[in-house]
Amino acid sequence: MTKPRIAVAGIHIESSTFTPYMSTADDFIVTRGEELMDRFYWRDEDWATQIEWIPVLHSRALPGGVVERGAYDAWKAEILEGLAGAGPLDGLFFDIHGAMSVQGMDDAEGDLINAIRGVIGPDPMVSASMDLHGNVSQDLFDGCDILTCYRLAPHEDALESRRRAAYNLGMRLLNGQPKPVKALVHVPVLLPGEKTSTRIEPAKSLYKMIDPIEEMDGILDAAIWIGFAWADQPRCKGAVVVTGDDAGLVKEQAERIGQYFWDVRDAFEFVAPVASMKECLAAAEDGPKPFFISDSGDNPGAGGADDVTVALKALLEWKPVQDATLDIVYASIIDPVAAGAAWEAGVGAEVDLEVGGHIDTREPGPLNVHARVEALADDPMGGRTALLRTGGLRFIVTTNRNQYTMYSQFELLGVDITTADVVVVKIGYLEPDLYETQKGWLMALTPGGVDQDLIRLGHHKIERPMYPFDSDMADPDLHAQVVVP
Predict the structure, then answer these.
(1) Where is the Microcystin LR degradation protein MlrC C-terminal domain (predicted)?
(2) Contacts of residue 35, Cβ cutoff 8 Å, sequence gap at least 6
(3) Which of 3, 37, 335, 450 is most deeply buried (CB count within 10 A of its CB)?
């Protein structure tokens, strides 16, 4: 038997259209050939060895701003050229996020899949792996035959989800099965990830609907997208896609999930108690240690610029910092000039720096700080990085945008967050290492390109009515769009 031939390609980033930061080619890690396939832990599993994989190009970046058009066009052209030269294909594993924004486009993934179909034609089976914070536009739905996404937020199942997308595609081709029936329900709800974490209700129960549905005869996959709240585009909304071989059941289950999603819209709440930055600091002073505060509005993991100085200013003015009565860690702020000056001065040096506020210039803007250089490290993502101390505060300044989510990142600078009194991180919901460490946690509703107050951001291009922007809207039409091959 001739091995099925499956190409692998994609561009993976989520982009806030509300941040002034622009993501360029320098922000991405690009893999091709065997290096691309090495990303997948399942490549040596029995089913995968029965397939001829044709790795073309994959480009991935930390969430950021709108992607520079030239970078996107170059990768798109390389993907199309690679597919055109790959010979006859049976399938494509389309490894994407689903919330990429590109200069001059409202639906970048839709543009990419349309161009790909123009090269490979309508026959190859396409399976997309996505983030649950991605968006399922009409063009993306039309261009793909199987669509699935993560089922956990935080995304502890990201690798498993990619395997599922590849496995579903590979096994249908190995078994000689046709393209599945697919059903789409768009749900006019647009909420931030910090209100839809699967750690808590109602998202926990919403996503628990998936496993029993997938066990039904005639169902291949069921997937739920929360959508991406920090982009102002018509495609941004909740979505449900169910695929399988029983058209009636596929439609029924897609509509059942979509209806439940809509019915619980008012029940979504923040994953942690929320407050202003000053209120968070007041609670942290006497709260259990280590006490964590999320600087949520400038979270680089959702596309924030990573240099808004609202939280840093509040820390510098906080009495426990000035009196050095608590051990406080702040991670982090991008400022390549400040980081470079710290590197030039060296460990132990006293430096006067202007920090932050150069990308997202909203008040208070750049801050003048006198600090001692405590540690230097060359971080794989953050580049040349410095740990600076002023009073009781140790804060991290990076050359590149970075998000601190794991012990190992702090340990590069000799920081043990488990023994700190207060840890402030530019993040929304806490990733596993941080979540397991905290003894108390508040989310600060700070301003920035990923402000949790969506109404304050000012969306103009999303479809209306949309919850919660139109909280008294009538019940929407949640009938599924069904495609039978």
Answers:
(1) 293-461
(2) none
(3) 450
